Amino acid sequence: MTAIGLIDCNNFYVSCERAFDPKLVGVPVVVASNNDGCAIARSNEAKALGVRMGDPIHLIRDRLDKHGVVVRSSNYTLYGDMQRRVVAAVEEFASEVEIYSIDESFLDLAPFADRDLTVHANGMRDQVRRWTTIPTCVGIGPTKTLAKVANAAAKKNPLFDGVADLRDPAIRAFVLDRFPVADVWGVGRATAAKLATLGVTTAGQLRDMQLKQARGLGTVVLERLVAELQGVAASVVEVVEPRRKGMAVTRSFGAPVSDLETLMGAVAQYAMRAGEKLRSHGLVAGQLTVFFHTNPHRRDLPQHHGSRRIALHPMTADSLELLAAARRGVEAAWRDGPAYTKAGIMLDDLVAEEQRPRTLFEGDVDRRARLMTALDEVNGRFGRFTAVPAAQGFAREWRMRAEAKSPAWTTRIAEVPVVSAR
Question: What whole-number distance in Å separates Cα of residue 310 and Cα of residue 248?
Fold first, then answer.
C-alpha cells in the first residue's frame, strides 16, 4: 500500500536559533531576510503579536521593540547544517527521503505501512527532537498532495497532535471538506480565483471536479492535482525530472556602492558562486546576464539600471570564465555617479555538462575542470570564499547587513558552544 509522508520542521529558522540559545525559548523571535530586510520566519509568539511574513523590519521596529521581539539575522550556514542533521535523524524511519525544501522532506513509508504509522511518525518526531531539538509535524497520505494537506492539518488542528494520516477515506474527507482550496499545494492565487467563480472553495470540492474540466481550467497541472486529491499519484505521469532552465545569484548591498571596482568585487563573488552552483548540478550555461541598479524608491537620488547579456562560447561552468564575461558586461553598462544597491548574475540556456556542444577552438578544458574541482574542494573544506580571485577582494564593504547574526555553532570550530560542568 502506498504511504507517503511529509515531515515539516516547525518555524524552522527560529527553531534553529533556539537550539543553541535557550534564552529564546518562549519569547517572540523573528528571523530577518538577507540584509536584515523582511521577516522570513516567526515564532508562534511573534505570530500572535501580528508580525506577518514579509513585514519590512524597519517599518515594524517600534512594535518589535515595544513587545520585546528578538530579531536575528538569517544564518543559512547554520540552517543548512541543521537540515542535514534532521534528515539523518529521519532516514531510518523511511525507505527513501526526498528533500523538498530546507525544512520539508517527503518520505516513502510504504515498507512500514503494515504498522501504526501514527506511532511510527511520532517515534520519528521524537528522534528528530532528541538529535536536534527541532519540533516537527508529519502528514501521511497516498499521494504527495494529500501528504501536504495532511501536514497542514497536523500543524493547525490540535485533534491530530502533530501527526495526521489521511489514508483512511473518512478522515481524508473530513479534512478535505474543511481545507481552503487556496491553501492546496500548487493552487496559485489566480487559479483559486477561477475556482471560486465555479463555487469551488474547498479541497474536497476540488477533489470532486472532473479531470477534463480541471485541465480546461488550469492545464495539466490542475488535472494532476485533482487526481492526487483523489488518491492517484501524479508521479506515474511525469517520471523524468524537468530540466532546470536557469539559475541566479543576486544580493542587495549592505551599503550603497558608487565606484566600479567595488561593484565588481560583489559581481565577482556572485559569478564565482554561480559557477559553483552550476558544477554542483552538473550543468553548463550558454548565456550570462549581469545587472546592477540603484534604489528605485529613492527618487531624490540619481537612478540607473545597468544590465548586459553575454553569450558564452563555449558553454561553461568555469567560474573564471563567468567572471570574465560578467566584467565585460559591467564595464559596458557602467555609469558614473549613481549609488548602486543591488547586483546579480543570471544564467540561462543550461544543459547537462556531458551534453555540452563542443567547439573547434576550445582550450584545455580538462585542465580548467581540474582547477575548478580543486577550488571547490578548498572552499568546501575551509569555508566558502577561502580561495577567491583578486577581483573579489577581501574587504567587501558591500556585504549585506547581518547585525544580529548568530554564530556558526556547528560548522566553525572557533564558534562551537562550550559547555562546562560545575
Answer: 15
Instruction: List alpha helices for 165-210, DSSP H.
Output: 169-176, 189-197, 203-207
Alpha helices in 283-364 (DSSP H): 319-333
Whether 90 contacts 107, CB under 8 Å: yes
**Which amino acid would we find at residue 218?**
G
Query: How many residues can be counted in the chain?
Result: 422
Residue 389, C-alpha cell as written in the block: 580571485
Distance between CA atoms of residues 157 and 164, nearest Å: 9
Whether the pLDDT of residue 147 is over 90: the answer is yes
| Residue owning grid cell 499519484 | 233
pLDDT in tens, 373-418: 888 888 877 766 777 787 766 555 556 556 677 877 777 777 777 7
Please give the distance of CA 320 from its chain centroid, rounded to a whole number.
26
Using omega within 30 degrees of 0 as the cis cutoff, is the peptide bond preceding 357 cis?
Answer: no
| pLDDT score of 240 | 37
Query: What are the CA-CA distances from residue 297 to residues 2, 192, 198 (Å)?
Result: 52, 32, 40
* pLDDT score recorded for residue 330: 94
Cβ(345)–Cβ(271) under 8 Å? yes
Compute CA distances 48 → 12, 44, 184, 214, whole Å: 17, 6, 24, 37
Supply the pTM of this predicted model: 0.70
